[in-house]
Design a protein that fits this description.
Blueprint (H helix, E strand, L loop, with lengths): L2 H38 L4 E5 L2 H14 L11 E3 L4 H11 L4 H9 L5 E6 L5 H12 L3 E7 L11 E5 L4 H22 L3
Parallel strand pairs: 1-2, 1-3, 3-4, 4-5
Helix pairs in contact: 1-6, 2-6, 3-4, 4-5
Length: 190
């Protein structure tokens, strides 16, 4: 790729990010407030995904447990991708499609928030965990692309990036993680 191609890719990313925020600003605020409400009521955020989405899940949990920008009380958030012993044992004993569902069963309680991230919206283990979470009284949020896929049918709130380009969707997902953390931290008690 040459400089022109790099500039075009960056321009495409920036334009998609702006379109997404313009179309979803109210929903982003609602999701952030919903997560904060759960956390302030004694609940927790369970966040999960595969590959780059696993990295986004870990990033979000770290920002909430640690801090995003300002010092404040730690907020209870778990990335269900960070315990290799649990992930591999569950995958071995039950199958990879259950690696997140089993952890939601263990850690999730009514009033918690389950946030599943899937670029395609079709990751079977994300869909299965979100469906289970919703059946058990957790508030469910999907962060997807490509129209939401199967995730769209099993969540209370859907943040879908209108694109078919995996890199561009992932770039918007990284922005969404930061924007949700910004909403949560801005409104959280010091």
């Amino acid at each position: 790729m040459n400089e022109t191609g790099l500039r075009a890719a960056a321009a495409e990313s920036v334009a998609l990010q702006q379109r997404f925020v313009d179309a979803n600003a109210s929903l982003l605020c609602d999701v952030g407030r919903r997560i904060l409400g759960a956390l302030e009521s004694g609940g927790k955020l369970l966040v999960f995904g595969n590959g780059g989405s696993a990295a986004d899940a870990q990033h979000m949990a770290a920002e909430l447990v640690g801090r995003y920008v300002r010092d404040r009380a730690a907020l209870p958030a778990l990335a269900l991708t960070t315990d290799p012993s649990a992930v591999t044992a569950i995958a071995n004993d039950f199958g990879f499609d259950d690696v997140f569902r089993r952890q939601v069963e263990a850690h999730g309680r009514p009033g918690d928030v389950a946030l599943g991230i899937s670029t395609s919206g079709r990751s079977a283990n994300v869909v299965r965990a979100l469906r289970y979470a919703r059946e058990r009284g957790l508030h469910t949020v999907g962060l997807t692309g490509r129209g939401g896929g199967d995730v769209a049918a099993v969540v209370d709130q859907l943040l879908d990036v209108s694109s078919d380009s995996t890199p561009r969707i992932q770039e918007v997902h990284a922005l969404v993680v930061h924007l949700l953390c910004e909403v949560i931290e801005d409104e959280a008690a010091p």
